[in-house]
Amino acid sequence: MLSPIIDLISYRYEHQLPTIITSNLTPQQISEVYGKRIGDRLKVTTEIVPFLNGSYRG
Questions:
Q1: pTM of the predicted model, to two decimals?
Q2: Which of 2, 12, 44, 54 could form a disulfide linkage to 17, CB 3.0–4.6 angstroms apart?
């Protein structure tokens, strides 16, 4: 089974590489979609920067 997002996050975590991620998902939703392991890795390696602007879409 291919899981490019999980593979990418795992690779960058193991090699201590910086990664910028944007998502509309909450941290809890990320864990539910991609699994607890990936959710935990993101939790310890990321800084959440919320964007509080309204949508630019019409």
A1: 0.71
A2: 12
- Phi/psi of residue 57, each to 5°? -75, 145
Q: Residues 11-55: pLDDT tens digits?
A: 999 999 998 888 889 999 999 998 999 899 888 888 888 888 877
Q: How many CA atoms lie within 13 A of 42 on its CB side?
A: 24
- Domain spans of the chain, in order of start: 4-13+22-45
* Alpha-carbon gap, residue 25 to 15, rounded angstroms: 25
Per-residue DSSP letters for 6-46?
HHHHHHHHHTT-------SS-HHHHHHHH-HHHHHHHHHH-
The answer to whether residues 39 and 27 touch, using CB atoms and an 8 Å cutoff, is: yes
